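Readers outside the structure-tokenisation community will struggle with the description of the input data as it stands. I therefore recommend that a typical entry be quoted early in the introduction. An entry of this sort, consisting of the sequence and the corresponding backbone structure tokens, reads as follows:
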Amino acid sequence: MKIQNLKSLTLIIVFAGLLAGCSPSTKILGSWKSPDAETAGYSNLFVAALIGDNFVTKKTIEDDIDELLVQKGVQAISNLELVKPGLILTNENKNQVAQEIKKSGRDGIMTIAIIDQTNETRYVPGTTSYSPMYYGGGYGRFGGYYGMYGPTTYSPGYYATDKNFYVEINLYDLATETLVWSAQSETTNPSSIDQVAKEFAYVVVDKMIKDGIIVPKTKEKK
């Protein structure tokens, strides 16, 4: 029974290691802010995820960014239908889209685009843990224990492949249509779009606040 329990423990350790090695995470690799950016920050943004034809992924990312910005007191919208019904963003009409967004009262446009994706294989070394074993029938004494395996459990090493997605986030001043802020993020082992989109939104918006490109509006105390 004890031997079976030790085998089960070893499997649990290995499985936990696999989960830890594959857990999703998003971080900002670097950012840049133009000296021409509005010193008071931007407060009315249009958000556009430029990620191809995957409507669900696009909408999920945009909605999570919009929701978090609004929570911070920054107006945000990503639906072109609310700017001008029937307007669709294409490479050919991007100038028209910029003008229509500007007419809607926005002061900046935020774009999100995947710029690279890599697969990296790494080796996770095995681990050894001490676990004293006690057996009935005299095995708790040296004589009965001698000849059996030592009181340790070992989880073997394994190879894990990490999927990394690199995303570029740009903010353009709509009055001048110039780039005023840019950042690059890395997301490792995304599990689901819902989980990753929320984490991505928090990381990006937090960085925008720290860089002073947006300024949260605090509620007045009553």
About this structure: The beta strands are 25-33, 44-49, 75-77, 108-124, 127-130, 152-155, 158-173, 178-188.
